[in-house]
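Following the same procedure, sequence and fold were stored together, as reproduced here:

>
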Amino acid sequence: MSNIAGRVREVFRGDQRVDADALIARLDAVRRFLTAVDGLLPDGDLVPAHTLVERAGTRLALSRDHTVVALAGATGSGKSSLFNALARLELSPVGVRRPTTGVTHACVWGPLEGANHLLDWIGVLPRHRFVRESALDADDETALHGLILLDLPDFDSVQRSHRLEVDRLLGLVDQVVWVVDPQKYADRVIHDSYLREFHRHRDVTVVVLNQADRLSPAEVPRVLDDLRRLLDTDGLTGVPLLATTAVDPAGMVGLRDTMERTVAERQAALRRLAGDVDTVVAGLDQLVGTARPAGGPDDTAVDGLNRALAGAAGVPAVTEAVERAYRHRAGAATGWPVVRGWRRLRPDPLRRLHLPGPPGDQSDPAESLVAATSVPDPTAAQRSALGLAIRAVADRAAADLPAAWPGAVTSAARSRLGDLPDALDRTIAGTDLGLDRRPVWWRAVGGVQWLVTLAAVVGLGWLVLGYALRVLGLPALDNPMVGAVPLPTALLLGGLLAGLLVAALTRPVVRWAARRARARAEQRLTARVAQVGDEYVLTPVRIVLGSYAQARDALRDAARG
């Protein structure tokens, strides 16, 4: 298997030691996984991981000198008899009524004070706690000091509360001894609902065939072989399988030796938690997989997003206004001085959009503090195009991710969609459109226009003065001649013709320069709009992809058992 679940070591740790530091590192990796996926994946899928982190932290913080072993089984399997036989005391009630064991009983080998906190956490009531410590035992029970043995309720109880209590406790104990009897050892309930679910906890699982005294000596091996076959089918290959009988002390030797070895190793709690980590990691693998995501969406999707944002922001309308504003301002600067005033009476195209007016424009100071434009709102088609572009970005970015992540990527891409209109409007309002300075050639052409206009005015004035003198009968002035044309007439006609010629020559230059100004403004606006798209759409997507990468790496670290 190439996935993480395939790398989880589902080995029998019965003869191996679990390093506490390595286990803590794996638990920390699960914690890092939960931090990385917080708010991105469904909470229901993360419950086992949260439960593991909480339980493991509590169990490791409590006594490591105690080993909690639970006897679990069905009604009539003889759990309570085994419990009393191991304790060598009558602690748990034994009977034939159903159910026999209704509450959990605990027997502690050694001082009770050191185990109380652990039993409080497990949930065993104080009145059901017993101490296996007697001066009459001498050193007989020393090998079991640190053992906390639990007699659980019957998991097949007719009372649902008993079954729920069993399920709860099975998630807390360090080791489970499954007790079956010759009549019901093949019952589907114990195999399908319990034993099979413990295949990743083989190293803390023991199965005993109790009441073996009810079988003939020839039947015991056959039943054990059949039970071993069932356990192998359940994935419990290698777990200890013992035959016991509570009525004969010799029939308890194997189980007691197993308990003594478990207590002496002080490994059951660590092995149980290691198995819990294996189980959680295998369950989380389908949420993460092994895909290595790209750093973000591809260039094609980003280009499509930028075009859609430009359309929604009104960039085409603004750039068209820039071209018209350039022609308007160039005409006002290079046209005939006598008609410039008329041009100034016409509103500047950019001012109509509440964008920066010409240099020296005396706009309302209060209005300049509001970064809002009058650019037309996006049409339904433009809004639809933007939505499709955002979806394309999310789809391209999440193309290789497991099924649980594309939804998170899409949500991230759309998470700031409501803020986009204001952000785009502020960006358009704050972008330098490149019209804040007058080109030098405007001034040069404007100066020429002033000169030729002044020449025409001088010629006109000269002609008017001569006409007035003649009307009044005064001596007329001698007009110098320019060739065959009097100088005043040459100045008037030359000035008018020169003005028209300069205007005619300037007009195509203005149109060309206006188109360049439009292209320059479009480039700047597109770049600024792309920055908005990066901040409001692409960055949230990259954050989710980064979280996925962190989660994948954390789960890989947690899988290293």
In short: The two ends are 16 Å apart (CA to CA). Strands lie at 67-73, 105-108, 129-131, 147-151, 175-180, 205-209, 241-243, 481-482, 485-486.
